[in-house]
Design brief:
The protein is globular. It has 15 helices and 13 strands. The protein has one domain (about 5-30, about 45-315): TIM Barrel (Alpha-Beta Barrel). Helix 3 (about 80-100) packs across helix 4 (about 140-150) and helix 13 runs parallel beside helix 15 (about 405-415). The longest helix has 23 residues, at about 255-275. The chain is an alpha/beta fold.
Length: about 425
Amino acid sequence: MKKTVAMIISAVMLAGCAWQGSGAKTSVQTRSVENMSTAEAPTAVRYLPNEMPQYGALNFGEQRAVWLTYMDMNGLFAEDADSFSAKMSGALDLIAETGLNTVYLHVRAFADAYYPSELYPPAKSLPADSEGRPLYDPLKITVRLAHERGLSVHAWINPLRCETKADMERLQGYELYEWFAEPEVYPEYVSSPEGTPFYWLDPAVPEVREYIAAGVRELCEYDIDGLHIDDYFYPTTDPSFDSETYAESGTELPLAEWRMENCTEMVKLIHDTVKSADEEMLFGVSPQGNIGNNYEFMFADVKRWCAEDGFIDYIAPQLYFGYENTVCPFSETLAEWRALCTGENVALVCGLGLYKTEGDSAEEEFVSEQGIIARQIKDALSAGCEGFAVYSFGQLSAEKDTRSCIERECIMTMLTK
């Protein structure tokens, strides 16, 4: 049965959130008791509509964050809720012990969902029954466990990236699949640019932006503390990706400026969707650290977002550079970002590349200089940043005596002394 975006948005709004006169959000998630673990089973308490307990977003003046990626999530999944809870508890304990206070939790990586969703299919790695229904709700469990430890949770989504062509069939039954399967009806809503195996949504299409916003609204039913997107905006500079949409728009803007406007429209809509659910909830963007790349390749107008209120609450540029980097040396690039953040309510959170300390992505300066991430944290905070974020949990949880583990110990020593 065809689901229109309007129907989806209405269903999400009606089923997901209860609203009071003050505009405060109240979580009314439901789940059958028989599918819950003993630890999750609720006490039988009845609330009248205006007596539901309210949740207030948990955030910090100095954000100390870590990206917990979909790959990290895949390693934490278990066949039942209790086992997953135990593994996630260990992960969150490690995060808290390190001295961090915020988790960017990957909940949508490839037009999928790491939670039960009406809009997106379950992630392939999410344990499910024979009919494909998730056995438990990892987002709900993680939010509860994180809050028990005083940790903030920002739901992290990739709004535009979809599956490979082979996996797009998983979207059957969702409107996204209609866009994929009927390109003559929905031209360029979703397409696969040359050079990438993935399909991508086109942010120029209003229905696409509304669908993304509906997914955000769905996430806001949970007691999350923020919504986070990273640097995956336009996947290509190739004009053929959206040539028909560009021509039909009637715009007089050059293609690059038009694409930037589309990304800005999407960012603005996500921001407004978050704020309509809870004014205290944060919305942040993590663009590429090289400012020029955001304009030349991603079509992300980061200067505007940092200078004007109403787009983002924080920006977390990926400053995955060493002090000796010849293109974007860390200190100079940090200063450039600091200068961009002139918006009264825009915070700068410095993204740091812990992943560069070892493995395939290792770089000499990060390998040879022990404590480099701790040093960058100190420099970022001294420069006036409102926080930092480390990529990623996979390195933060590395085995003892590895280079990443040693770096984590340096971070912990600096933050907890």
